[in-house]
Specification:
Helices cover 66% and strands 5% of the residues. The protein is mainly alpha-helical and 184 residues long. The radius of gyration is 19 Å and the shape is elongated.
Length: 184
C-alpha cells in the first residue's frame, strides 16, 4: 500500500469514528436533557398512571434524533467530522456536492456500521452506502459551491423519521410476535 492510500484510509476511518462519536455523544446529551426536563415536569410515573403520550413523545423524539443522525451530511455534503477533516460528499458521476436525499440514502447502511468500517479499509473513497447512493467522499478543495437546500433537507428529515418509525413499528411487532410465541 502506498503512503497516500494509507493517509486516505486513515482520514476516512477518522471521519467515520469522529462522526459516530460526535453524533452519539450529541444524542446522549439531548436525551439526558429531555429526560431530565420530563422528570422535573412529571415526576416518576408508576405503571398504573402512565399516560399514553408518555410513550409516544419519546418514540417521536427518538425517530427525530435518529433521522438527524441519518441526515448528518445533508448540509452541503458535510457532516461535523467531514467539516473538521476537510472532506465532502459528492455525486459519483457529476462531481457536484451530493444533495440531502443522496446523503440520507448513503447513511442508511450505517445500521451495519462495523461492516462499513471494514469495507472502507478496502475502498476508502466509497463505502457500501456510497455505492448505493451513487456518491463518494473527496477532499474539499473549497471550489465546489452549493446553496443550502432547506426544502430538500426537510423532506429528507421527514423521510428519515418515517423510516425510523417503520423500524420502530417493526420492532414492536416482532417483539409482540416473539412474546406470543413464548407463551405457547
Amino acid at each position: 500500500m502506498t503512503n497516500e492510500k494509507n493517509r486516505i484510509i486513515g482520514i476516512r476511518l477518522a471521519s467515520m469514528l469522529l462522526d459516530h462519536f460526535i453524533m452519539t455523544f450529541g444524542i446522549v446529551i439531548i436525551l439526558f436533557i429531555l429526560a431530565g426536563i420530563g422528570l422535573l415536569l412529571l415526576g416518576i410515573p408508576t405503571n398504573d398512571d402512565l399516560p399514553e403520550w408518555f410513550i409516544i413523545i419519546p418514540l417521536f423524539l427518538g425517530t427525530m434524533i435518529f433521522s438527524i443522525y441519518l441526515n448528518k451530511d445533508a448540509i452541503r455534503g458535510k457532516s461535523p467530522a467531514k467539516r473538521i477533516l476537510g472532506l465532502v460528499i459528492v455525486d459519483h458521476k457529476t462531481g457536484e456536492i451530493a444533495n440531502p436525499l443522496k446523503s440520507f440514502i448513503r447513511n442508511l447502511t450505517l445500521i451495519f456500521w462495523p461492516i462499513e468500517v471494514i469495507f472502507s479499509l478496502f475502498s476508502p473513497e466509497r463505502r457500501i452506502g456510497d455505492h448505493i447512493a451513487g456518491t463518494k467522499v473527496i477532499s474539499d478543495d473549497k471550489t465546489l459551491k452549493t446553496e443550502i437546500k432547506i426544502g430538500q433537507i426537510i423532506i429528507s428529515l421527514v423521510i428519515g423519521m418515517l423510516f425510523m418509525a417503520l423500524i420502530t413499528a417493526l420492532q414492536f411487532t416482532l417483539a409482540g410476535t416473539f412474546r406470543s410465541m413464548m407463551k405457547w
